[in-house]
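Checklist before submission:
- one chain only
- standard amino acids only
- sequence pasted in full

Submission:
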Amino acid sequence: ESETALFFTFLEMHTFDTFTEMLADHARPELRPPDELPEPDVTDRRAGLLYYLAGWLVSKVKRVIEKPGRRDHSTVAFWTKWFEYNAVDEDDAARLQLPTELTDQR
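Returned file contents:
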């Protein structure tokens, strides 16, 4: 009975690994900005919330790429470039007059 259980456990794990590999997207998109980026509407009443959520996402990406023991260097390189492109420091945010009120409150 234990050999049967081991066989089905192996079969389940193998099936899961095969299915996961088939679904995996190994292609990475090219990291370059579009030719023309639209100017954000900082007067929209939701602009502060959008700025806060974008900052939260950028901070989470930074945490993941700085996590010790990361071994997949191509993934780390991809997200590091993404972070560098999307991160905005406080001085730049003030200079660009971004809606930082909600972020400043947190």
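Reviewer check: The mean pLDDT is 81.
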